Every structure is written in C-alpha cells, then in structure tokens.
Amino acid sequence: MFATLLATVALCGAFNVAVDPLGIFGTPRIAGFNATKPYLDHHRDLARWQAAHRLCPTAGIFGNSRAEIGFDPEHPGFATLGLVAYNHAIPGTPINIALRQLHWLDDADCRPKQVIVGVDFFDFLGAPPARVPPPAIPPAPRIDGSVFAETVFSVTGLRDSLNTIAIQHVSHPASLSPRGFNPLLNYIPEVAQTGHYGLFRQRAQENLRSWTRKSPRIHPDNGNQSVEYAGLEAFLQDAATMGATVHVVIYPYHAQIRLMMERAGLGQLFTEWKASVLAAAEHARSTNADIKVWDFSGISAETTEPIPAPGDRQTQLAYYWEAGHFKKALGDRILDQILLDRPGFGHLLTRTSVDRWLIEDQELVTDLASRPSGLIRDVDSLFPNTKPQQSTSASERRDRNPS
C-alpha cells in the first residue's frame, strides 16, 4: 500500500517536471505536449527569472502589463542590432521590481546592452514617499523546498500540468512565450463575444475608481522623493553604470484615457509628470549615460483609433485591446522607431524640445476635447455629475492651498 502510494507520488512528480508548466526546470519544450506554456499568476518572479537566467539576454524589456502585452522581445529590431531580448515585465508591478530584475541580471553577469523600460503615470499618482535608506535588493528567487513541493508534488502543480497539455491545441490560449511575451490571444474570443466597446467601458470605469483612490499629486507634500521616482532614478543610474543604452517609454495611452484625465483634473499633472521623467533621465545622463525618453502618449492617428460601437462584435482593433493596453502591432511600431530609427508617432523628449512639445501636446488634447464625437460623448457619460473642467497646474494647487 505504502509502496503504491510512493510510486504514485513519484510518478506524479516526474510528470509535473516533464510538463514544467512554469518553465522553471528548463525541461525541453515538445510540440503538442508542453511547448505552449499557460499564463499563470503564481511564482511570476521565479518563472521569469529562471527563463531570463538561462537565456542571459543582451537586451531587456521592463515595465508592467502594458509592456508585457505590447512589446515583443522577438521584434526584428533586436536581431538587427545583434541583440537577444527578454521581456521581464510583470503586471501590476512598480519600477522597484524592474530594479530588482536589473540587479539579478548584473549579479549573474548577464548585463543588458539595451534596455527598454515603460513608465506609467498612474504608478506615480498618489506619490507615497520613498523609504530612506532604500530597502535592500533581495536575492534572485530560487527553487527552494517550498517551491519544489508546490510545483512538483501538489494538486496545484498537477492542475497546472494538465492545463498545459490541454491548451496545446487551443486556438487562442492564455500563454507566455519563452521570451516572456504575453500576446493576450485569449482576448480575441472575448472581443468576439462582448466586443471591444465592453472592454473599453469596463476598464474606463475601473480606471476612474483607481484614480479617485489616490491623491492628485506626483510628489510627496514634504518635498521628498516618492517611492516611484526614487526607483526610477535608481534604475536609470544602475542601468547606465552597467553600460546599457536605455530607452524610457511613456506608454501610448488611447485618447480615451487622455480625455478622461482632463475631465478628472489630471491633465496638467500628467504634463508635469512627463517633464519630471525627463528630469530623472537628465540627472542620470550627467554621467554621460545614453538615456533617451520617448513620449508615445500624444494625440495621433494611432492613439485615436475609433472605438467600435456597443454591440459590435465583428471589429478587431488593430492597435488596442482597451484604452490602457496596446497590441503587439502598436508595440512593433514603437520598437521600429526606437530600434530601427523608422518614422513613427512618438516624440523624443530632449532638454531643448520638451517645453515646445508639452505645449503642443496639451493643445492637441484640448482641440480633440472641443470637437463633438462619439468618443467625447462616451467620456462625458463617465462623468454624469460633473462639467468639463480645466486641469490645474502644481503652482495653481499650491496657491489654493498655501499651507
């Protein structure tokens, strides 16, 4: 009886290692068996680190879900530059997680030559103060006894393995590529079922709830650095110390988000934040570091891609899943401009161009908001009890609150 139980457990463990749903054991990928890995929410740090450590990439993509979904590490621009890229981005994580990942790569002698890091205004909103001194960087995650037991000898591990086998012949699985890219293919049938409009509307409502829970500021009231700014400066300085060329990317929010920010009184704060991101890059560039800041959030043909009407389940947008998450097609356009120097819709921010561009950018938003359209009506419906308002600058807010 005991021998049978032991044999069953051993067989189950061997099966889970062979399938390797998280890809942490480096088991060979076999087409039709375990080549496609499911998108799993647990052990995300470990899974990405194990894959990155084995690959030892010469280029890295860092950020949150917008980067994970939008930037394909197998974009041809990397190969053109003689680089092998990995997408380290993890949904819902701040810049300090990217800083950890950068340190782990450095410790493993896998220093990237090219870094693309996405920065998200909404991660900076609220401005919780940074800890002084900053917390120590934890060591890279490893397969310890607890992880081994959970992934090899648990019901969770077995369920993940069975799920891995099940998705091998699914047309649009929720999956993660060997290079850390999440193509979000599972949204294709969701769009066919509910339409893009429903996704845009749901996410817009979620965004508003999230924004209103945060203070409308990007710096702490005491004048110190916020945790996100401190993390960004540390990331840029450390990447520069490693000798990497760094591209800081302000994500291409759909125009719906830009208009919502205006209605919520956050538009001018967003402008100030862009200037602050450039200032952080300029500070790191004082050591002759090669750091570029790109703004892809402006009003353009790409960011004003029309949202399908309610009930339209046929239209699959070219560039967006919903207003905050862009597709690989738009991510490829961004990488074309950054890596291959092709004309695009982004703006390279420099000390001499930033003021002019920020004024032009705000004028484009104001012009879009002044022209009646389905997009404007839809944004208005999200603010049923408020009138359109002008966003306020930091100086205006200080004048109103002299204390």
What does this structure look like?
The protein has helices spanning 2-19, 44-55, 65-70, 76-80, 95-107, 121-124, 145-152, 155-166, 187-194, 196-212, 227-241, 255-263, 267-285, 328-340, 354-370, 374-381, 394-400; strands spanning 37-38, 59-62, 85-87, 114-119, 175-176, 245-250, 291-295, 320-322, 325-326, 347-349. The protein is α/β, with parallel strands linked by helices and 403 residues long. It has one domain. A six-stranded mixed beta sheet has the order 3-2-4-6-7-10. Strands 1-5 form a two-stranded antiparallel sheet. It has a two-stranded antiparallel ribbon with strand order 8-9. A hairpin with a 2-residue loop joins strand 8 (320-322) and strand 9 (325-326). Helix 13 runs antiparallel to helix 15. The radius of gyration is 23 Å and the shape is globular.
The main sheet orders its strands as 3-2-4-6-7-10
Average of the residue pLDDT scores: 93
What's the β-strand tally? Answer: 10
User: What are the secondary-structure elements, in order, as H or E?
Assistant: HEHEHHEHEHHHEHHHEHHEEEHEHHH
| Biggest β-sheet description | 6 strands, mixed
The total number of structural domains is 1
Please identify the oligomeric state: single chain
Which class do the helix and strand fractions yield? alpha/beta
End-to-end Cα distance: 76 Å
Low-confidence stretches: 390-403
Number of helices: 17
Summarize this, please?
Helix content is 47%, strand content 9%. It is α/β, with parallel strands linked by helices and 403 residues long.
Key terms:
9% strand; six-stranded mixed beta sheet; globular; alpha/beta; 403 residues; disordered C terminus
